[in-house]
Amino acid sequence: MSSEYTKMIVGIDDTDSRDGMCTTYLCALLRDELSSYAKTVSDPILVRLNPTIPYKTRGNASVALFLECDEPEKVMDHVIRKVASMACMENENTNPGIVFITDDQFEKVRKTLSDFFRHAVKEVITIDEAKELVSGLGLKFKTFKNGRGLIGALSACGAMLSQDWDHTYEYIAYRKLEVCGTPRFVDGDSLFEADRQTYPDTWDTVDLKNEMVVCVPHAGDPVLYGIRGKDAYSVEKAVSFIRSEPVERVCIYRTNQGTDMHLISASTISDIQEMHSYILEGQVCCEPKTIRGGHTIFSLKDSAGDTIDCAAFEPTKNFRELIRKLIPGDRIVVYGSVTERTVNIEKIKIIGLSPKYEVRNPLCPSCGKRMKSAGSDQGYRCRKCGTSSMVTERSEVKREIGIGFYEVPPCARRHLAKQLLRFEKDELPVFAGR
Protein backbone atom coordinates (compact mmCIF):
# COMPACT_ATOMS: atom_id res chain seq x y z
CA MET A 1 0.00 0.00 0.00
CA SER A 2 1.41 3.41 -0.92
CA SER A 3 1.98 6.23 1.56
CA GLU A 4 -1.01 8.04 0.06
CA TYR A 5 -3.80 6.22 1.80
CA THR A 6 -7.17 7.10 3.25
CA LYS A 7 -8.59 5.82 6.51
CA MET A 8 -12.21 4.85 6.17
CA ILE A 9 -15.01 3.47 8.29
CA VAL A 10 -17.69 1.37 6.59
CA GLY A 11 -20.94 0.71 8.47
CA ILE A 12 -23.47 -1.88 7.29
CA ASP A 13 -26.82 -3.12 8.56
CA ASP A 14 -30.00 -5.01 7.69
CA THR A 15 -28.78 -7.42 5.02
CA ASP A 16 -30.17 -10.62 6.55
CA SER A 17 -33.58 -12.17 7.13
CA ARG A 18 -34.97 -14.71 9.58
CA ASP A 19 -34.32 -17.39 6.97
CA GLY A 20 -30.79 -16.64 5.82
CA MET A 21 -27.70 -14.50 5.33
CA CYS A 22 -26.03 -12.63 8.19
CA THR A 23 -24.72 -9.07 8.31
CA THR A 24 -21.68 -10.24 10.29
CA TYR A 25 -20.88 -12.75 7.53
CA LEU A 26 -20.91 -9.97 4.94
CA CYS A 27 -18.54 -7.97 7.16
CA ALA A 28 -16.14 -10.93 7.44
CA LEU A 29 -16.36 -11.58 3.71
CA LEU A 30 -15.69 -7.93 2.85
CA ARG A 31 -12.73 -7.77 5.23
CA ASP A 32 -11.17 -10.70 3.37
CA GLU A 33 -12.11 -9.58 -0.14
CA LEU A 34 -10.88 -6.02 0.37
CA SER A 35 -7.50 -7.19 1.67
CA SER A 36 -5.92 -6.90 -1.81
CA TYR A 37 -6.31 -3.10 -1.81
CA ALA A 38 -7.22 -2.22 1.79
CA LYS A 39 -6.10 -3.34 5.22
CA THR A 40 -8.04 -3.60 8.46
CA VAL A 41 -6.89 -1.07 11.05
CA SER A 42 -8.69 -2.48 14.10
CA ASP A 43 -11.10 -5.22 15.18
CA PRO A 44 -14.39 -5.14 13.27
CA ILE A 45 -17.28 -3.81 15.37
CA LEU A 46 -20.50 -5.73 16.05
CA VAL A 47 -23.11 -3.72 17.92
CA ARG A 48 -26.53 -4.80 19.11
CA LEU A 49 -29.19 -2.11 19.07
CA ASN A 50 -32.49 -1.73 20.95
CA PRO A 51 -33.70 -5.34 21.42
CA THR A 52 -37.40 -4.42 21.51
CA ILE A 53 -37.60 -3.08 17.94
CA PRO A 54 -40.38 -5.14 16.30
CA TYR A 55 -39.11 -4.94 12.71
CA LYS A 56 -35.62 -6.30 13.45
CA THR A 57 -34.62 -9.28 11.33
CA ARG A 58 -32.94 -11.44 14.01
CA GLY A 59 -30.54 -10.07 16.63
CA ASN A 60 -30.70 -6.38 15.62
CA ALA A 61 -26.96 -6.28 14.96
CA SER A 62 -24.96 -3.91 12.78
CA VAL A 63 -21.27 -3.96 11.84
CA ALA A 64 -18.41 -1.64 10.94
CA LEU A 65 -14.96 -2.02 9.41
CA PHE A 66 -12.05 0.41 9.87
CA LEU A 67 -9.82 0.34 6.78
CA GLU A 68 -6.80 2.00 5.19
CA CYS A 69 -6.93 2.09 1.41
CA ASP A 70 -5.40 3.70 -1.68
CA GLU A 71 -8.65 3.93 -3.60
CA PRO A 72 -11.66 4.73 -1.39
CA GLU A 73 -14.01 4.90 -4.36
CA LYS A 74 -13.02 1.37 -5.31
CA VAL A 75 -13.78 0.20 -1.76
CA MET A 76 -17.19 1.90 -1.82
CA ASP A 77 -18.10 0.34 -5.15
CA HIS A 78 -17.04 -3.11 -3.97
CA VAL A 79 -19.06 -2.86 -0.74
CA ILE A 80 -22.19 -1.61 -2.49
CA ARG A 81 -22.03 -4.33 -5.14
CA LYS A 82 -21.49 -7.05 -2.55
CA VAL A 83 -24.41 -5.92 -0.38
CA ALA A 84 -26.66 -5.60 -3.43
CA SER A 85 -25.84 -9.12 -4.58
CA MET A 86 -25.90 -10.94 -1.23
CA ALA A 87 -28.52 -9.23 0.97
CA CYS A 88 -31.93 -10.93 1.26
CA MET A 89 -33.64 -8.27 -0.87
CA GLU A 90 -36.64 -10.49 -1.55
CA ASN A 91 -37.61 -10.32 2.13
CA GLU A 92 -39.86 -7.36 2.94
CA ASN A 93 -38.11 -6.80 6.30
CA THR A 94 -34.62 -6.60 4.78
CA ASN A 95 -33.75 -2.98 3.99
CA PRO A 96 -29.96 -2.55 3.81
CA GLY A 97 -28.05 0.59 4.61
CA ILE A 98 -24.35 1.42 4.15
CA VAL A 99 -22.41 4.44 5.43
CA PHE A 100 -18.89 5.54 4.45
CA ILE A 101 -16.80 7.95 6.55
CA THR A 102 -13.31 9.09 5.55
CA ASP A 103 -10.64 10.36 7.93
CA ASP A 104 -11.13 14.01 6.98
CA GLN A 105 -14.65 13.71 8.47
CA PHE A 106 -13.84 11.79 11.66
CA GLU A 107 -13.53 14.69 14.08
CA LYS A 108 -16.48 16.55 12.61
CA VAL A 109 -18.90 13.65 13.12
CA ARG A 110 -17.35 11.79 16.08
CA LYS A 111 -19.48 13.28 18.90
CA THR A 112 -22.72 13.26 16.91
CA LEU A 113 -22.42 9.64 15.79
CA SER A 114 -21.19 8.45 19.17
CA ASP A 115 -24.34 9.92 20.73
CA PHE A 116 -26.45 8.42 17.94
CA PHE A 117 -24.99 4.97 18.63
CA ARG A 118 -25.88 5.13 22.32
CA HIS A 119 -29.31 6.51 21.46
CA ALA A 120 -29.98 3.65 19.03
CA VAL A 121 -29.17 1.04 21.69
CA LYS A 122 -31.72 2.51 24.11
CA GLU A 123 -34.31 4.40 22.07
CA VAL A 124 -36.55 4.05 19.01
CA ILE A 125 -35.18 5.86 15.95
CA THR A 126 -37.04 6.43 12.71
CA ILE A 127 -35.68 6.01 9.20
CA ASP A 128 -36.35 9.69 8.52
CA GLU A 129 -34.23 10.70 11.53
CA ALA A 130 -31.33 8.61 10.21
CA LYS A 131 -31.66 10.00 6.67
CA GLU A 132 -31.79 13.56 7.97
CA LEU A 133 -28.67 12.95 10.08
CA VAL A 134 -26.56 11.33 7.36
CA SER A 135 -27.48 14.06 4.88
CA GLY A 136 -26.84 16.82 7.41
CA LEU A 137 -23.38 15.44 8.15
CA GLY A 138 -22.57 15.20 4.45
CA LEU A 139 -21.65 11.51 4.59
CA LYS A 140 -21.65 9.17 1.64
CA PHE A 141 -24.22 6.43 2.01
CA LYS A 142 -26.30 3.93 0.11
CA THR A 143 -29.70 2.54 0.99
CA PHE A 144 -31.86 -0.17 -0.54
CA LYS A 145 -35.66 -0.30 -0.42
CA ASN A 146 -36.88 1.75 2.58
CA GLY A 147 -33.32 2.11 3.94
CA ARG A 148 -33.98 1.14 7.55
CA GLY A 149 -30.47 -0.33 7.75
CA LEU A 150 -29.13 3.22 7.70
CA ILE A 151 -29.93 3.42 11.43
CA GLY A 152 -27.67 0.51 12.29
CA ALA A 153 -24.96 1.51 9.81
CA LEU A 154 -24.69 4.97 11.39
CA SER A 155 -24.70 3.40 14.86
CA ALA A 156 -21.86 1.02 14.03
CA CYS A 157 -19.84 3.91 12.64
CA GLY A 158 -20.51 5.83 15.85
CA ALA A 159 -19.30 2.86 17.90
CA MET A 160 -16.11 2.64 15.83
CA LEU A 161 -15.45 6.36 16.25
CA SER A 162 -16.06 6.51 20.00
CA GLN A 163 -14.41 3.30 21.26
CA ASP A 164 -14.96 4.32 24.93
CA TRP A 165 -17.79 1.88 25.70
CA ASP A 166 -17.78 -1.32 27.69
CA HIS A 167 -17.13 -4.21 25.35
CA THR A 168 -16.66 -7.96 25.01
CA TYR A 169 -15.54 -10.14 22.11
CA GLU A 170 -17.15 -12.74 19.89
CA TYR A 171 -15.38 -15.24 17.67
CA ILE A 172 -17.75 -16.25 14.85
CA ALA A 173 -17.07 -19.24 12.62
CA TYR A 174 -18.97 -19.38 9.33
CA ARG A 175 -20.18 -22.30 7.26
CA LYS A 176 -19.54 -22.83 3.60
CA LEU A 177 -22.42 -21.16 1.78
CA GLU A 178 -23.31 -24.29 -0.17
CA VAL A 179 -24.29 -26.13 3.02
CA CYS A 180 -26.37 -23.32 4.56
CA GLY A 181 -29.87 -24.55 5.28
CA THR A 182 -28.69 -28.07 6.13
CA PRO A 183 -28.18 -29.31 9.72
CA ARG A 184 -24.99 -28.00 11.35
CA PHE A 185 -22.38 -30.29 12.81
CA VAL A 186 -20.63 -28.97 15.90
CA ASP A 187 -19.61 -31.66 18.38
CA GLY A 188 -21.52 -30.99 21.60
CA ASP A 189 -18.97 -32.67 23.87
CA SER A 190 -16.25 -30.42 22.50
CA LEU A 191 -18.33 -27.33 23.31
CA PHE A 192 -18.79 -28.46 26.91
CA GLU A 193 -15.04 -29.08 27.08
CA ALA A 194 -14.33 -25.61 25.66
CA ASP A 195 -16.53 -24.18 28.39
CA ARG A 196 -14.78 -26.19 31.12
CA GLN A 197 -11.39 -25.04 29.91
CA THR A 198 -12.15 -21.31 29.49
CA TYR A 199 -15.07 -20.28 31.74
CA PRO A 200 -15.37 -17.60 33.18
CA ASP A 201 -13.16 -15.93 30.56
CA THR A 202 -15.72 -17.13 28.02
CA TRP A 203 -19.42 -17.59 28.65
CA ASP A 204 -22.75 -18.66 27.16
CA THR A 205 -21.15 -21.43 25.11
CA VAL A 206 -23.34 -23.99 26.87
CA ASP A 207 -26.04 -24.01 29.56
CA LEU A 208 -24.95 -26.46 32.25
CA LYS A 209 -28.15 -26.53 34.29
CA ASN A 210 -30.33 -27.18 31.28
CA GLU A 211 -27.70 -29.34 29.54
CA MET A 212 -27.99 -27.34 26.33
CA VAL A 213 -25.62 -26.00 23.69
CA VAL A 214 -26.16 -22.25 23.40
CA CYS A 215 -23.58 -20.96 20.90
CA VAL A 216 -24.86 -22.79 17.78
CA PRO A 217 -27.78 -21.12 15.94
CA HIS A 218 -30.61 -22.97 14.22
CA ALA A 219 -31.63 -20.68 11.33
CA GLY A 220 -30.44 -21.01 7.75
CA ASP A 221 -27.75 -18.33 8.06
CA PRO A 222 -24.00 -18.92 7.55
CA VAL A 223 -23.04 -18.75 11.25
CA LEU A 224 -21.71 -22.10 12.47
CA TYR A 225 -21.08 -21.03 16.07
CA GLY A 226 -20.14 -17.96 18.09
CA ILE A 227 -17.90 -17.94 21.17
CA ARG A 228 -18.21 -14.96 23.51
CA GLY A 229 -15.64 -13.83 26.02
CA LYS A 230 -13.64 -11.07 27.67
CA ASP A 231 -10.89 -10.81 25.04
CA ALA A 232 -9.65 -12.20 21.75
CA TYR A 233 -7.20 -14.60 23.40
CA SER A 234 -9.91 -16.26 25.50
CA VAL A 235 -12.32 -16.87 22.63
CA GLU A 236 -9.53 -18.24 20.43
CA LYS A 237 -8.47 -20.58 23.24
CA ALA A 238 -12.05 -21.89 23.53
CA VAL A 239 -12.23 -22.50 19.79
CA SER A 240 -9.11 -24.68 19.97
CA PHE A 241 -11.22 -27.33 21.74
CA ILE A 242 -14.12 -27.31 19.26
CA ARG A 243 -14.68 -30.02 16.66
CA SER A 244 -17.04 -29.18 13.80
CA GLU A 245 -17.78 -29.36 10.10
CA PRO A 246 -15.37 -27.44 7.80
CA VAL A 247 -15.28 -23.68 8.42
CA GLU A 248 -15.25 -21.27 5.49
CA ARG A 249 -13.92 -18.23 7.37
CA VAL A 250 -13.79 -16.73 10.86
CA CYS A 251 -13.89 -13.25 12.33
CA ILE A 252 -13.39 -11.84 15.83
CA TYR A 253 -15.59 -8.85 16.69
CA ARG A 254 -15.41 -6.27 19.42
CA THR A 255 -18.98 -5.89 20.61
CA ASN A 256 -21.35 -4.34 23.15
CA GLN A 257 -22.88 -7.75 23.87
CA GLY A 258 -23.07 -8.58 27.58
CA THR A 259 -22.85 -4.95 28.73
CA ASP A 260 -26.41 -3.90 29.74
CA MET A 261 -25.90 -0.92 27.46
CA HIS A 262 -29.60 -1.00 26.55
CA LEU A 263 -30.85 -0.40 30.12
CA ILE A 264 -32.22 2.92 31.41
CA SER A 265 -32.60 3.63 35.13
CA ALA A 266 -36.26 4.45 35.84
CA SER A 267 -37.25 6.27 39.04
CA THR A 268 -40.93 5.40 38.75
CA ILE A 269 -43.19 3.24 36.63
CA SER A 270 -44.73 6.39 35.16
CA ASP A 271 -41.36 7.03 33.45
CA ILE A 272 -41.54 3.76 31.54
CA GLN A 273 -42.21 3.68 27.79
CA GLU A 274 -42.96 0.81 25.47
CA MET A 275 -40.03 -0.64 23.47
CA HIS A 276 -37.42 0.48 26.00
CA SER A 277 -35.38 -1.44 28.58
CA TYR A 278 -35.10 -0.51 32.24
CA ILE A 279 -33.68 -0.99 35.70
CA LEU A 280 -36.63 -0.54 38.06
CA GLU A 281 -36.94 -0.93 41.82
CA GLY A 282 -40.19 -1.79 43.54
CA GLN A 283 -42.16 -4.11 45.76
CA VAL A 284 -43.80 -7.36 44.76
CA CYS A 285 -47.52 -6.78 45.27
CA CYS A 286 -49.10 -10.11 44.31
CA GLU A 287 -48.28 -13.79 44.32
CA PRO A 288 -46.54 -14.86 41.07
CA LYS A 289 -48.86 -16.87 38.83
CA THR A 290 -47.94 -19.30 36.08
CA ILE A 291 -50.23 -18.88 33.09
CA ARG A 292 -50.89 -20.89 29.97
CA GLY A 293 -47.67 -21.44 28.05
CA GLY A 294 -45.61 -21.75 31.23
CA HIS A 295 -44.96 -18.02 31.69
CA THR A 296 -44.71 -16.80 35.30
CA ILE A 297 -46.00 -13.27 36.00
CA PHE A 298 -46.29 -10.98 39.02
CA SER A 299 -46.99 -7.29 39.59
CA LEU A 300 -44.44 -4.79 40.85
CA LYS A 301 -45.45 -1.62 42.72
CA ASP A 302 -43.29 1.51 42.94
CA SER A 303 -43.15 4.17 45.67
CA ALA A 304 -45.94 6.11 43.99
CA GLY A 305 -48.28 3.11 44.08
CA ASP A 306 -48.20 2.48 40.32
CA THR A 307 -47.90 -1.12 39.15
CA ILE A 308 -46.50 -2.99 36.17
CA ASP A 309 -46.45 -6.68 35.27
CA CYS A 310 -43.11 -8.49 35.27
CA ALA A 311 -42.67 -11.82 33.48
CA ALA A 312 -40.27 -14.74 33.43
CA PHE A 313 -41.28 -16.28 30.14
CA GLU A 314 -41.17 -20.02 29.43
CA PRO A 315 -37.76 -19.92 27.65
CA THR A 316 -36.14 -18.80 30.94
CA LYS A 317 -36.65 -22.39 32.21
CA ASN A 318 -35.43 -22.84 35.80
CA PHE A 319 -35.34 -19.08 36.41
CA ARG A 320 -39.13 -19.26 36.76
CA GLU A 321 -38.71 -21.43 39.87
CA LEU A 322 -36.95 -18.53 41.56
CA ILE A 323 -39.65 -16.06 40.52
CA ARG A 324 -42.35 -18.34 41.95
CA LYS A 325 -40.70 -18.04 45.37
CA LEU A 326 -41.30 -14.28 45.56
CA ILE A 327 -44.11 -13.10 47.84
CA PRO A 328 -45.91 -9.78 48.33
CA GLY A 329 -43.72 -7.33 50.20
CA ASP A 330 -40.39 -8.49 48.73
CA ARG A 331 -38.28 -5.58 47.50
CA ILE A 332 -36.51 -6.19 44.21
CA VAL A 333 -34.81 -4.48 41.30
CA VAL A 334 -35.82 -5.82 37.89
CA TYR A 335 -33.74 -5.55 34.72
CA GLY A 336 -35.48 -6.01 31.40
CA SER A 337 -37.31 -4.75 28.32
CA VAL A 338 -40.86 -3.49 28.23
CA THR A 339 -43.41 -4.53 25.64
CA GLU A 340 -47.18 -4.51 26.10
CA ARG A 341 -46.73 -2.99 29.58
CA THR A 342 -44.81 -6.05 30.77
CA VAL A 343 -41.18 -6.24 31.84
CA ASN A 344 -39.41 -9.19 30.24
CA ILE A 345 -37.04 -10.00 33.12
CA GLU A 346 -33.37 -10.53 32.22
CA LYS A 347 -32.19 -10.59 35.84
CA ILE A 348 -33.34 -9.43 39.26
CA LYS A 349 -31.67 -8.21 42.41
CA ILE A 350 -33.51 -9.12 45.61
CA ILE A 351 -32.81 -6.35 48.13
CA GLY A 352 -35.34 -7.17 50.85
CA LEU A 353 -37.38 -10.21 51.82
CA SER A 354 -40.79 -10.01 53.44
CA PRO A 355 -41.38 -12.46 56.32
CA LYS A 356 -43.37 -15.54 55.36
CA TYR A 357 -45.68 -17.19 57.86
CA GLU A 358 -47.25 -20.60 58.14
CA VAL A 359 -50.72 -20.72 59.68
CA ARG A 360 -51.85 -23.95 61.40
CA ASN A 361 -54.49 -25.15 63.81
CA PRO A 362 -53.41 -24.35 67.39
CA LEU A 363 -52.07 -26.90 69.88
CA CYS A 364 -54.31 -27.85 72.78
CA PRO A 365 -52.87 -26.21 75.96
CA SER A 366 -53.97 -29.24 78.02
CA CYS A 367 -52.82 -32.29 76.05
CA GLY A 368 -50.59 -30.75 73.39
CA LYS A 369 -52.44 -32.33 70.47
CA ARG A 370 -53.37 -30.36 67.38
CA MET A 371 -56.95 -29.01 67.57
CA LYS A 372 -59.49 -29.53 64.81
CA SER A 373 -61.77 -27.01 63.18
CA ALA A 374 -65.06 -26.63 65.02
CA GLY A 375 -66.84 -25.39 61.90
CA SER A 376 -67.08 -22.23 59.91
CA ASP A 377 -66.27 -19.19 62.10
CA GLN A 378 -66.42 -21.38 65.22
CA GLY A 379 -62.70 -21.64 65.90
CA TYR A 380 -61.00 -24.86 67.01
CA ARG A 381 -61.76 -27.67 69.47
CA CYS A 382 -59.63 -30.44 70.96
CA ARG A 383 -61.47 -33.71 70.40
CA LYS A 384 -59.76 -35.30 73.41
CA CYS A 385 -60.08 -32.54 76.01
CA GLY A 386 -62.91 -30.48 74.62
CA THR A 387 -60.79 -27.34 74.91
CA SER A 388 -61.76 -24.52 72.53
CA SER A 389 -59.77 -21.71 70.93
CA MET A 390 -60.45 -18.97 68.41
CA VAL A 391 -56.74 -18.24 67.76
CA THR A 392 -54.71 -19.88 64.97
CA GLU A 393 -51.03 -20.68 65.32
CA ARG A 394 -48.85 -18.42 63.20
CA SER A 395 -45.12 -19.07 62.83
CA GLU A 396 -42.45 -17.59 60.58
CA VAL A 397 -40.88 -19.99 58.09
CA LYS A 398 -37.50 -19.78 56.42
CA ARG A 399 -37.56 -18.35 52.88
CA GLU A 400 -36.16 -20.52 50.09
CA ILE A 401 -34.43 -17.58 48.41
CA GLY A 402 -31.88 -15.09 49.63
CA ILE A 403 -30.91 -11.49 49.06
CA GLY A 404 -28.73 -11.07 45.98
CA PHE A 405 -28.58 -11.12 42.17
CA TYR A 406 -30.16 -13.80 39.98
CA GLU A 407 -30.08 -14.11 36.19
CA VAL A 408 -31.83 -16.09 33.47
CA PRO A 409 -29.92 -19.15 32.22
CA PRO A 410 -27.61 -18.87 29.18
CA CYS A 411 -30.21 -20.51 26.93
CA ALA A 412 -32.52 -17.51 27.50
CA ARG A 413 -29.92 -14.73 27.63
CA ARG A 414 -30.44 -11.71 25.39
CA HIS A 415 -27.41 -10.47 23.47
CA LEU A 416 -27.03 -7.24 25.43
CA ALA A 417 -27.76 -8.60 28.91
CA LYS A 418 -24.74 -8.40 31.19
CA GLN A 419 -23.78 -11.69 32.80
CA LEU A 420 -23.39 -11.73 36.58
CA LEU A 421 -19.81 -12.90 36.18
CA ARG A 422 -19.03 -9.52 34.57
CA PHE A 423 -20.25 -7.52 37.59
CA GLU A 424 -17.87 -6.23 40.23
CA LYS A 425 -17.91 -8.43 43.35
CA ASP A 426 -19.23 -5.62 45.59
CA GLU A 427 -22.29 -5.46 43.33
CA LEU A 428 -23.11 -9.11 44.06
CA PRO A 429 -24.09 -9.75 47.71
CA VAL A 430 -24.87 -13.30 46.62
CA PHE A 431 -23.41 -14.76 43.48
CA ALA A 432 -26.07 -16.98 41.98
CA GLY A 433 -23.58 -18.98 39.95
CA ARG A 434 -24.72 -20.97 36.94
TrEMBL record:
Residue ranges occupied by any TiaS FLD domain in the UniProt entry: 147-262
Catalytic activity: cytidine(34) in tRNA(Ile2) + agmatine + ATP + H2O = 2-agmatinylcytidine(34) in tRNA(Ile2) + AMP + 2 phosphate + 2 H(+)
Top-level taxon of the source organism: Archaea
Subcellular location: Cytoplasm
Gene Ontology biological-process annotations: tRNA wobble cytosine modification
One of the record's GO molecular function terms: ligase activity, forming carbon-nitrogen bonds
EC number(s) stated in the UniProt entry for this protein: 6.3.4.22
Domain TiaS-like TCKD: 9-141
Function according to Swiss-Prot or TrEMBL: ATP-dependent agmatine transferase that catalyzes the formation of 2-agmatinylcytidine (agm2C) at the wobble position (C34) of tRNA(Ile2), converting the codon specificity from AUG to AUA.
Family named by the database record: Belongs to the TiaS family.
Name this polypeptide is given: tRNA(Ile2) 2-agmatinylcytidine synthetase TiaS
Originating species: Methanolobus mangrovi
Lineage start: Archaea, Methanobacteriati, Methanobacteriota, Stenosarchaea group, Methanomicrobia
